[in-house]
Amino acid sequence: MICSDQTRPRIEAAFDAAQNYETHARVQRRVAEALADRIAALPVVAARGDTLRLLEIGCGTGLLTRALQDRGIGGHWLVTDIAPRMVSRCATAMADHAAAPALTFAVLDGSAPPASLTPGSFDLICSSMAFQWFADLGPALARLADLLAPGGTLAFSTLLDGTFAEWEEAHRREGLDAGGLRYPSLHALSGLFPRGGNLSARELHARDAYAGAGDFLRALKRIGAATPRSDHRPLPPASLRRVMKAFDRMGAAATYRVALCNWTSPTAKDELSA
């Protein structure tokens, strides 16, 4: 479990309200670039060329979208996000991006694709830093895998256990719970994919420094990532101040632990259920 279904409306609202996202999304930009490099090297990208059928989940303001276009990836893309304003921001950004591929934009919940997206519709499904928001990642991966053509690839990045360890530790030192979403280990994540196919996964660690705890919290809010678990109660102001001081004493930095995954479907679809 990554987040609850009760958390989803708050996540959508948080991302809709995320102003100046890219100013504060330093790690997200680095991860998108690393993921784009992996995607550009995929055999399916070379094989399909300008006929590539691509679905992007959680496009945000278009960090991954633009990184893929910058690497010369063409084809027909369906670019989506759960937050309508993020879809609009991405569409605006890509309108100013020269030589874009054929693009369609849509509001879509990537964890539960609509029936209008039929099995085998895509050669590549990609997403950067969105899957950690899914309520139940295993079934979502199975649904997305079913949308791949034989030999198609699901390529994504997502957060792992140990992300924001410094903020969590600052809470522990005060005997408190940070209330953050829970993320899987890379080993646990690897066990969520459908049987069959081929998985390549690695970890990327990125440490981001802040002027202080207040700067850290503002940055999370401005990238729409400050939503706590649905069962978490906000700390009283005095408790939060103690945590913030502890975080500052530890160096006011936070580590992102990120999985970069490529899962390629079998060439025969019936192998998925073997």
UniProtKB/TrEMBL annotation:
GO biological-process terms attached to the record: methylation
Positions in coiled-coil regions: none
Gene3D superfamilies: Vaccinia Virus protein VP39
Keywords: Methyltransferase, Transferase
Sequence ranges assigned to domain Methyltransferase type in this UniProt record: 55-154
GO molecular function: methyltransferase activity
UniProt protein name: Methyltransferase domain-containing protein
Pfam family, one: Methyltransf_12
